[in-house]
Amino acid sequence: GGVRDLLGEDSERGILVKPQDISAFTLALSRLIKDDDLRRKVGLRAREFVRERFTKDRLIKDIEKLYFSVV
User: Which of 5, 6, 32, 46 could anchor a disulfide with 13, C-beta 3.0 to 4.6 Å?
Assistant: First the structure.
């Protein structure tokens, strides 16, 4: 998956802006700064996403799978 997959539908875990688009970045950052509820929800969803998908056991299995696919 790409960045869109990491952020989720409707920017539930972050706000996607085009590369080098300073105006869009500024607007997204301003939106998060001004909206406490949005900032809190996005942060909690992002944290939960990382906790679920990047556990030590899962990373070990992924590394083993990669290792055995090239051996």
Answer: 46
